[in-house]
Amino acid sequence: MVLSVLFFLPVIFLLFLYPSKHNYQTLDIVKNDIPELYEFKTLEGDSINLKDHLSIVAFPGKSPFDDGTISLNLKELIYDKFFGFKRFQILALVPYSAEQQVLDLKKELNSYSPLMYWKFAFGSDEAILEAYNNFKISTPLSSNLSSADSFIIDRDGHQRGRIDDRTKLEIEEKIPVYSMYSYNVLEVADLKNKMSDDIRILFTEYRQKRKGNFNSTSRRANDLIE
């Protein structure tokens, strides 16, 4: 009897879970139709594309190696989690003057794992400023062309974020609505607790679309499980 209970109890528990559906809300579109980055090329001279990719766009600036925290945090907390997912990429937009620093930084980052889905793309100072201003932003780009803010762009070229970034407690306390359009790469909590969750939400959305049961009326996640 004891062996039977030990065998059948987990099976019964799984049968109860099987028909249940996990409810989630999709990640908000905070700006539509981010322009393609046609003016940027990789070190190898290749073009980069936002279309049909889930992209994280970052701005390491003129001194990406000296200010390596931006790239290292993205590498350890985001890239290493998601680089195996289809069409996932990180795009770091840098000026031509940063080429040697990029080479040094790539060598450092590659010592941990190959950067197959991480691209450093070079453009003029003006192109970088224009690209940054095409996003819905909260803070201006620095004179060094760097920013702690990174952005999530979905496969259709839309910028994703949170129109209402309040916690449940803040909602209960009737704190005024505030939004989050970008993710601070210098804040570990932002990357681990927000960006990471929001990327998972997008992958869940794509899975639901493939299965044909995507609910476009929902907005963003409350909870998300693997």
Rg: 20 Å
* Helicity, as a percent range: 25-40%
| Shape estimate | globular
What top-tier CATH class fits best?
A: Alpha Beta
N/C terminus separation? 34 Å
Question: In terms of quaternary structure, what is this?
Answer: single chain
Number of domains: 1
CATH third-tier fold name: Glutaredoxin
Helical/strand content category = alpha+beta
Give unreliable regions as ranges: 17-23, 216-226
Produce the secondary structure layout.
Elements: H1 2-17, E1 28-31, E2 41-42, E3 54-60, H2 69-82, E4 88-95, H3 99-110, E5 118-123, H4 125-134, E6 146-153, E7 159-161, H5 168-172, E8 183-184, H6 188-211
Parallel strand pairs: 3-4, 4-5
Antiparallel strand pairs: 1-7, 2-5, 3-6, 6-7, 6-8
Helix pairs in contact: 2-6
Describe what this molecule looks like in 3D:
- The chain is α+β, with helices and mostly antiparallel strands and 226 residues long.
- Strands 1, 2, 3, 4, 5, 6, 7 and 8 form an eight-stranded mixed sheet that branches.
- Helix 2 (69-82) runs parallel beside helix 6.
- It has a single domain (25-211), classed as Glutaredoxin (3-Layer(aba) Sandwich).
- The relative contact order is 0.20.
- The longest helix is centred in the C-terminal third of the chain and has 24 residues, at 188-211.
- The protein has helices at residues 2-17, 69-82, 99-110, 125-134, 168-172, 188-211; strands at residues 28-31, 41-42, 54-60, 88-95, 118-123, 146-153, 159-161, 183-184.
- It contains six helices and eight strands, in the order αβββαβαβαββαβα.
